[in-house]
Amino acid sequence: MRTEFATIVLGCGGIGSGALYWLSRRLGGDVLGLEQFRLDHDRGGSQDHSRIIRLMYHDAKYTRLAPHSYTAWEAVEEESDVPLVLRCGGVEITHAQGPFREDVENYARAMDAAGVAYERLDHDELTHRFPQFQSDQEMMALYEPQAGLVDAGKGMAVHQILARGRGATILEECPVQAIHPGPDGVQVETARGTFRAQRLVVTAGAWTQQLLASVGRPLPLTVTQEQVTYYATPHLKEFSPKRFPIFIWKEEKDIYGFPVYGQVATKAGIDAAGPPVTPETRTFQPDPVRERILDEWLAAHIPRFLGPKLATKTCLYTLPPDRDFVLGPLPEHPAILVAVGAGHGYKFASLLGRILSQLALDGSTEHDISAFRVDRPALTDPNYVPAHRI
Length: 390
Ligand SMILES: Cc1cc2nc3c(=O)[nH]c(=O)nc-3n(C[C@H](O)[C@H](O)[C@H](O)COP(=O)(O)OP(=O)(O)OC[C@H]3O[C@@H](n4cnc5c(N)ncnc54)[C@H](O)[C@@H]3O)c2cc1C
Prior knowledge:
390 residues, alpha+beta, 10 helices, 28% strand
């Protein structure tokens, strides 16, 4: 078996599969992907039917990148003819007189600065356009027409299949056990032998911490066990993507949700509400307390969204203290590149993959990723106070 490659991708989940695809476009067979589990496993952060994609973000570091996330997915759709992004529109909602109004205004300002098209809806306009939403308090919303969902499971599979089609090697059930950076590249030890490459791309999600600690760069990442619930609403037509947008409702903890997609069900979750875990201590058991909180919230705000629960699926966030991506080389080992999606990275998975391929092969990218540096204060200052709200 070949053991020398130009680039090795460690972890073939959402972002790693994107990196494999974009690397294979330039390297063909000179790229190796190593995945500890089977490619379709559901132990990480990416395995599900849908993830929100949107241009609406709270900060320029994301609004300037977001349009390129669509372009990257379009290139993959173009090559595969498999539809991955569904633009059903999206709303950022809150109570007009409530404590989180300023959060939504942050999004409006960031979109104004980036020239992102959106509409401001008052209570009547919102309930006229989307009567599914209700509240005993006055609501307000920003409607962003390009928002929608990206099919996470399909997106990963298409990236992997196209990469293999271009000659890339992907080894499943092949955990990387050790990383040895050297003067002219990196050696990785696995259960199936030792492999070498000029560049190593670490896209290991919830496992990133321990892998980087092994090369002297422990990052203060918090892994949390999140969950989403699928509801078999009888009002399928009312919640079809043609009639219902993705939504993010700004509350103490954001509530987000999807129209009917993937499963014959609506889906919703509470953002960053899960307990800290490790990949070893996480469970697949839904938390009934969070389930009840979500049920009650939906009953008060989108009652017809509900139905018999089909499933509650657990999944892992990997959170830096400032909840910004981690993206770039390790200062002490520039041959090792790392990417962490910070609990909101799937929409960018193909673009992050493309950027990682540029960093690995050209040493630079046209995109401004300076805010995501590995050695930024949030990742190096032990006194940095974590803030996971976006
Ligand atoms: C409930 C939930 C809802 C979300 N909603 C959204 C959303 O709406 N929009 C959005 O943009 N993002 C969302 N996210 C975040 C997004 O899904 C993640 O940021 C993204 O999927 C992370 O991808 P990843 O490639 O970093 O991690 P993963 O997909 O977990 O991939 C890491 C891979 O590395 C492998 N690996 C680890 N260690 C090793 C090793 N030693 N050897 C070999 N392989 C290894 C793992 O097995 C895994 O396959 C959500 C996440 C969750 C959990």
